[in-house]
Amino acid sequence: MAAEIEIRLTLNGEERSASVEPRLLLSDFIRHEARLTGTHVGCEHGVCGACTVLVEGEPQRSCLMFAVQADGASIETIEGVAPGGELGVVQQAFHEAHGMQCGFCTPGFVMSLTALLRESPDASDDEILDSLSGHLCRCTGYVNIIEAAHLARARVNGGA
Ligand code: FES
Ligand code: FES
């Protein structure tokens, strides 16, 4: 077994340090070490988008990163966008627009859309589609997910 490496990172605003094996995936660190199981792992090779978290505010597939690569970084997971256990604006929109069925893919969609709307609150329909294009959903047919995204955009801009 390879020697463990000390890492320090900020996880949903809290500083953490840990000793990890060099090959530990960030997704496994989040789920198994930090016990934040809202981040889902589907394909584990960068295809489905379910494991998406924000690294320094940018959506990243946590199954394609080693935990050691997150040393010094600020990471946000789906738990971090539900302040005080209340649904965040994007989560609420998914709930109201029925943007999920089994919910397996949902955390990834929510994280990518959260990042987009923070950076571009008035993102165009095409920008929304582009930001969600790397996410697979095997249940919904995507129609209600797009509706949820449009609802979230309207809410972020003070409407709906
Ligand atoms: S689990 Fe990471 S992209 Fe599918
Ligand atoms: S809601 Fe089931 S995979 Fe998307």
Question: How would you describe this structure to a colleague?
Answer:
- With 160 residues, this protein is an alpha+beta fold.
- The chain contains 5 helices and 5 strands; from the N terminus they run ββαβββαααα.
- The chain has helices spanning 26-33, 89-96, 106-119, 125-132, 143-156, and strands at residues 5-11, 14-20, 52-55, 58-61, 74-76.
- A 5-stranded mixed sheet has the order 2-1-5-3-4, covered by helices on one side.
- Strand 3 and strand 4 (58-61) form a beta hairpin.
- The structure holds FE2/S2 (inorganic) cluster (2 copies).
- One FE2/S2 (inorganic) cluster (FES) binds at residues 41-44, 46-51, 61, 63.
Write a compact overview of the structure shown.
With 160 residues, the protein is of the alpha+beta class. 32% of the residues lie in helices and 16% in strands.
Separate helix tally: 5
Largest sheet properties: 5 strands, mixed
* Approximate strand percentage: 15-25%
Ions, cofactors and other ligands present here are:
FE2/S2 (inorganic) cluster
Order of helices and strands: EEHEEEHHHH
What ranges have pLDDT less than 50 throughout 5 or more consecutive residues? none
Determine the N-to-C terminus distance. Answer: 54 Å
The largest sheet has its strands arranged as 2-1-5-3-4
Sum up the overall morphology in one term.
globular
Relative helix content: 25-40%
